[in-house]
Write a structure and sequence with these properties.
heterotetramer; A alpha+beta (about 180); B alpha+beta (about 240); C alpha/beta (about 525); D alpha/beta (about 180); B: about 240 residues; Ubiquitin-like (UB roll); Alpha-Beta Plaits; five-stranded mixed β-sheet; three-stranded antiparallel β-sheet; 10 strands; globular; C: about 525 residues; alpha/beta; about 45% helix; about 15% strand; iron (chain A); NADP_DH_HndA-like (chain A); NADH-quinone oxidoreductase subunit E (chain A); 2Fe-2S (chain A); metal-binding (chain A)
């Protein structure tokens, strides 16, 4: 028995949806491409919102609850937008032994932000990671994609302050809205 | 006028469970055989008619010659195997597992609509759990009473996923799934929205009937009034998936 | 393609390379890149432009001594790492000096990092034999050092059964942690009836403090591809997946690149080396879940599901991906295959100890002078690794314990540092080989705190499927917090031990079954640290 | 019978509804039999106001929710050879512990301000201070026998007392359970 399965229309004319669609097409719209597709949504939009999850679910013919279950199982997937800058503190064993906890405490005290959260002004997202593989540089953090190692808390805070003052990093593009 | 079905060759094996000689088809699991012979093996996630999940670990048994314990729900019988289902060690482990479950969420039996008809509560008594040695985890979840017929109380959920499996395997709706990870897992309908807003739920109520605790219940029931009826399950399972 | 053609191609490349007098190799693996090796490479390239023929600057993979990065090696083409002149902590501004000094018999003193020190000479490199020598993005470089010759030899000169025999006789055991005999695993998959089979490379290196697989993928990706293709030939699989952590973008990039190039050159695809054997490799990215290193969870993740383990049996070898027979090995295991086929199983079996053959790559980290990646024969004494190769504790302090096996392992106290490192000796000490993370701790480290750290890890990484792991790790963590804060009494320590036993015995998968190990091992050797904090 | 000295029993209710004590009284004529074998030396049910130095069996109903509860539980532990947690509140916190889902300030505000129309105010004098979290008895002091139930039946209490009188380990699970 094969029932007709219509492909849903793209949520909007934002060209980034085409990237998402391309990933699904490359995988023959198979249900096992779900994680790949969510990666591609996150690469394109920065996070996974309800519109995107529903679009992916419909395109791959995967139940909504399953898509949501997968999206929330993996720690790398974000359901909320990121801040303008991100700081990922490595909490792997080597970094832990060499004081990753102090870095997290410093961020908490100075920026009033818990790991996994974004500051109220949307400037900074603080995350922790289980080993970024830079154990030789412990304690390390990844600031806007760049690994900085052998960090004292003051050095990390200073580096983050520079980011915000320089305003060089482009803000992530605004999230595309579906046409009303 | 069906002809003789071409049965795949399935051997019958003999083995021993708690000093009782038994025989069964080699594609049967230990728990199936034990239930058939009324050898009590506790379980909260296993339910005849649903796929095995292997999550509650209460059905662990000892198999002579094997260093590790085996979950009876996911272990097939083997010729000559010798199984112990009720040793002092197993009883101790089961007590601890039940304690851990009680301590994980706010299972307050005295004010539960399933009081007196709850598998977790019954099991605690059977295992001799009269208190929890560990403190209760300090979390609470909202109750979703949005559905006009049913209610979900996550504080009473033990994450056995019977609801997820019955919805997927028997009803075919796959409204339920599990979100999150670890102790933060939660059963969800569709995109974790209120149950009433689910686009896929057929309101069939199977999830409520298979739920072992007071997590999924009918609206309008008071303390102790929620009695579950699961007789439909093996019947539907046979109709849906003929062997 | 014949083996001769490939050898000829390799010779041609080597001859072309040999026209260059000096080869300047800049480490472009993740750790050195983090220290700015990219800018060093640019500066050297910019400086070398006018000289063309006499000098070639190339980015290479990991040279091992990560704590001294960025590392730059000056060598003659084809030289090994140890034969090269190595510079440490190189800054872009050092480029002119390095280039000016090329012809000088004496190295630049202030940058020099002698390669005759034990860190380099005491190693035995098989998996890492080409790491730090070749450009991981260059197929030519790989071919020049013999890349894909083992694959072509296997396809054209050996039957699958003969390949199996070599792998079995090598005594190679899985390098992912469990130490299951690789030959046995392969034979099981090979014996399954024909039809679709899969080969999966587990590159979900999740142990905090372990970066061996990452270094191999970043330094010599073709070697892993070659190992997988040989495995596919031996077991009768035509499709492979590499499941790699998304946290390793550089490894993903280089692997993607390598797969594309291998395919274009005919080492992947259909009719490889003009035989009937075809093999495709697809990359699948993880998304941040430690439990996906467990093989059944990994397969669930490849299939687009929540990474939750399922009961075994059936084992993946019988029913794995989409119910088909599936061979799962880790990166380092596959990286050992080409040399085994090349040199023979007996050659490999001559290395190491009775029960543990070959070499093992370790990631040395923690409180130690030489942080980085090393490869030593199985059976090397721990003390030798830490004191001689690792250079001991900075400032001459005393080692208190060495943690191996990550969250599934345990701490080895100073008194046992004389133990040879092999699967069985480590098991006897209450820890495991694991994937090769080795964290050194000095007297300042609190063992209760180490146990608490790993328990927190297991708690947040528990998938939530089975009760003992989901709730047990959470309760054990709470107890460890109370003990660490000197709030717990004797009864709570007893409860902790009871929970360790229950979680170990009843958990569904390896993550849960081994989660109590860090507690049990620190209790075994450092019980006084727990007891001194009890209140009653 | 009278040759053996009577068992000295003390009881108290902490944060509970006194239902467990009512269940104790539900023993009907067995109370007479009991009175020949035990002496209630301290209890809300009798006049004695001083906890004797040496008590054989202490029975506590209710959970530990305020400073007075804790003090009394500690006194019972110090004076009683065998300490019995009677009923679900004592054994696992039961209904009183449901307030643990909320911060204490919210609980007080709800009870004494939001739901009060006439002169809403927090009581400060003459009442013991509430503790941040409600815990079962064994959350603070060591307990020897646990009798779950809400309330445990008179039969269950009888069986436990008889076992203690006869010097046996009671097996409450044979007669009662959580929520019974």
């Amino acid at each position: 028995m094969s029932l007709h399965r219509p492909k849903p229309p793209l949520p909007s004319d934002d060209t980034r949806w085409k990237l998402v669609n391309a990933t699904m097409r490359r995988n023959g719209y198979a249900d096992h491409a779900l994680i790949e597709t969510l990666h591609s949504v996150q690469d394109a939009f920065g996070f996974l919102d309800e519109t995107a999850l529903r679009f992916v679910a419909a395109s791959l013919d995967v139940p909504l609850s399953k898509v949501f279950g997968v999206a929330t199982f993996y720690h790398l997937f974000r359901l909320k937008p990121k801040g303008r800058h991100t700081c990922v503190v490595c909490t792997g064993t080597a970094c832990y032994i060499k004081g990753a906890g102090v870095l997290v405490d410093a961020l908490r005290a100075h920026h009033q932000v818990e790991p996994g959260e974004t500051t109220a002004d949307g400037a900074l997202s603080v995350l922790t990671a289980r080993c970024v593989g830079a154990c030789g540089l412990a304690p390390a953090a990844v600031v806007d994609g760049e690994v900085v190692g052998k960090l004292a808390p003051e050095a990390l805070l200073e580096r983050l302050d520079q980011l915000e003052h320089a305003k060089t990093a482009p803000a992530p593009p605004p999230r595309a809205r579906a046409p009303a | 006028m069906p002809g003789p079905a071409s049965q795949p060759k399935v051997r019958v094996v003999t083995f021993r469970v708690d000093d009782q000689d038994l025989s069964a088809r080699e594609d049967e699991t230990l728990i199936e055989v034990c239930r058939e012979h009324r050898i009590p093996i506790p379980s909260l996630c296993y339910l005849e008619g649903l796929s095995a999940w292997g999550g509650c670990r209460l059905c662990m048994v000892e198999i002579v010659g094997q260093p590790r314990l085996a979950a009876a729900c996911s272990t097939r019988v083997v010729e000559g195997m010798e199984v112990h289902t009720d040793t002092e060690r197993l009883r101790r482990y089961r007590r601890t597992l039940v304690e851990l479950l009680f301590a994980e969420r706010a299972h307050v039996c005295s004010v539960c609509v399933s009081n007196g008809h709850c598998e977790l509560q019954t099991l605690a008594q059977r295992c001799g759990v009269d208190h929890m040695r560990m403190p209760r985890r300090a979390v609470s979840y909202p109750v979703d009473s949005s559905h006009e017929m049913f209610r979900v109380d996550h504080d009473r959920c033990i994450l056995c996923t019977r609801c997820v499996r019955v919805c997927d395997e028997i009803e075919g709706a796959h409204t339920w799934d599990v979100m999150g990870r670890g102790s933060d897992c939660r059963v969800i309908t569709d995109m974790a929205q209120p149950w009433a807003e689910s686009e896929t739920c057929t309101s069939c109520g199977k999830c409520v009937q298979v739920c072992p605790t007071g997590a999924l219940v009918k609206q309008g029931t008071s303390v102790g009034e929620m009695v579950k009826d699961q007789h439909f399950l093996p019947i539907l399972a046979r109709r849906r998936h003929p062997r | 393609m014949h083996l001769d053609d490939l050898a000829e191609q390799a010779a041609t490349i080597r001859a072309r390379d040999a026209e260059t007098e000096h080869e300047i190799r800049v480490c472009m693996a993740a750790s050195c890149q983090s220290s700015g090796s990219g800018q060093v490479l640019d500066a050297l390239r910019a400086g070398v432009e006018p000289q063309t023929q006499s000098c070639r600057v190339k980015g290479v993979g990991c040279m091992g001594l990560c704590s001294a990065g960025p590392l730059v090696a000056v060598a003659a083409p084809g030289d090994t790492l140890n034969a090269s002149r190595l510079y440490r902590d190189v800054a872009p501004t050092d480029a002119p000096a390095i280039l000016d000094n090329l012809g000088n018999p004496e190295p630049i003193e202030r940058l020099h990092c002698p390669t005759d020190q034990p860190f380099f000479t005491a190693q035995h490199r098989i998996v890492l034999e080409h790491s730090g020598r070749i450009d991981p993005d260059s197929l030519d470089d790989a071919i020049a050092v013999g890349g894909y010759s083992a694959l072509v030899r296997a396809l054209t000169e050996l039957t699958p059964a003969e390949v199996l025999r070599e792998v079995t006789s090598s005594g190679l055991r899985g390098r992912g942690g469990g130490g299951y005999p690789t030959g046995l695993k392969w034979s099981t998959v090979a014996k399954m009836p024909g039809g679709q089979k899969y080969v999966v490379c587990n590159a979900d290196e999740g142990d905090p403090g372990a970066f061996m697989d990452r270094a191999v993928l970043e330094s010599d990706p073709h070697r892993v591809i070659e190992g997988m293709a040989i495995a596919g030939y031996a077991v009768g699989a035509s499709k492979g997946y590499v499941y790699v952590r998304a946290e390793y973008p550089l490894a993903v990039e280089r692997l993607t690149n390598a797969i594309r190039k291998a395919k274009r050159a005919g080492f992947l695809g259909s009719q490889i080396a003009d035989t009937q054997f075809g093999f495709e490799i697809e990359l699948r990215l993880g998304a941040g879940a430690f439990v996906c290193g467990e093989e059944t969870a990994l397969m669930a993740s490849i299939q687009g599901l929540r990474g939750q383990p399922r009961p075994r049996p059936p084992y993946p070898a019988e029913a794995g991906l989409w119910g088909c027979p599936t061979l799962i090995n880790n990166v380092e295991t596959f990286a050992n295959i080409a040399p085994i086929v090349r040199e023979g199983g007996d050659w490999f079996a001559a290395l190491g100890t009775e029960g543990s053959k070959g070499t093992k790559v370790f990631a040395l980290a923690g409180t130690i002078v030489n942080t980085g990646l090393i490869e030593v024969p199985m059976g090397t004494r721990l003390a030798h690794i830490i004191e001689v190769i690792g250079g001991g504790i900075p400032g001459g302090g005393r080692v208190k314990a060495v943690q191996t096996g990550g969250p599934s392992g345990g701490c080895i106290p100073r008194a046992h540092l004389d133990t040879p490192v092999d699967y069985d000796s480590l098991k006897g000490l209450g820890t495991i080989m694991g994937s090769g993370g080795m964290i050194v701790m000095d007297e300042r480290s609190s063992m209760v705190d180490v146990a608490r750290y790993f328990m927190e890890f297991c708690m947040t990484e528990s998938c939530g499927k089975c009760v003992p792991c989901r709730t047990g790790t959470q309760q054990m963590h709470a107890l460890l917090e109370r003990i660490a804060a000197a709030e717990a009494g004797r009864a709570e320590l007893a409860l902790l031990e009871e929970l360790c036993e229950v979680v170990q015995a009843t958990s569904l998968c390896g993550l849960g079954q081994t989660a109590p190990n860090p507690v049990l091992s620190t209790l075994r050797y450092f019980r006084d640290e727990y007891e001194s904090r009890l209140v009653d | 019978m009278s040759a053996t000295p009577k068992l000295k029993v003390a009881t108290a209710w902490l944060d509970g509804c006194s239902g467990c004590h009512m269940s104790l009284l539900d023993m009907d004529q067995r109370l007479i039999e009991l009175s020949e074998r035990i002496d209630i030396v301290y209890s809300p049910l009798v006049d004695a106001k001083v906890l004797p130095e040496r008590v054989d069996v202490g029975i506590l109903e209710g959970s530990i929710s305020n400073a007075d509860d804790l003090a009394l539980a500690r006194r019972f532990r110090a004076h009683c050879r065998v300490l019995v947690s009677l009923g679900d509140c004592a054994v696992n916190g039961n209904v009183p512990a449901m307030r643990n889902h909320f911060p204490l300030e919210q609980v007080l505000a709800r009870a004494y301000r939001e739901n009060v129309t006439l002169q809403p105010q927090l009581p400060e004098r003459g009442v013991p201070a509430l503790r941040q979290r409600v815990v079962p008895i064994h959350g603070e002091v060591t307990v020897d026998v646990f009798v779950p139930g809400c309330p445990p039946s008179a039969e269950a209490i009888w069986q436990v007392l008889v076992a203690l009188l006869e010097g046996r380990d009671p097996d409450p699970s044979a007669f009662t359970r959580f929520g019974a």
